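Run log, item B.
One chain of 174 residues. Sequence copied directly from the ordering sheet:
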Amino acid sequence: QADVLLAAKSPLASPSFTGNVGIGTSSPATPLDVTKAGGGNFVANFQNTTAATPYGVQIKDAASSANGYPVFQVTNSTGSTAHLKVMSGTGDVLTAGSVGIGTSSPSSWAKLTIAGTGGAQNGATQALNVTSPSATANEGVGIRLSAASGSNEAVGIIGMVNNASGNYGSMTFH
């Protein structure tokens, strides 16, 4: 099997091709179907070598109101279990596993692990910063904690509400 290198300043093919293209497969199921047997390397590598504008890969959503379909999806080998999805129309990111921010090993018992650094308030990297989308008086921001057991729900809220003049707030714990 030989590697093929294509480098050109103009299109190599006409955009009138309407079939499926397969790389590493003789029966492509989608417009571009890339299959690689064996380990030790990625299936695809995209690199922009222009330092001034180093854009990567762009996936464009369809111009429709059909929201809620995966635009990007990572699945198991059979495609039956989605590990990560980016949804059309909303950009929502869905995952079945744990997410780590600032850590390469999120806690197995938590859906979200955020790691920051310790130190003085003005010098530390804060692990979580929740900002209100509004400076309007009597509006604010909060973190809702809830646990359901059958038809009962226990709720805890840590919140910050702007005062009547909107220049400072009060923090509440429920």
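Observations after the first pass:
- The first strand starts at residue 21 and ends at 23.
- The mean pLDDT is 76.
Flagged for discussion on Thursday.
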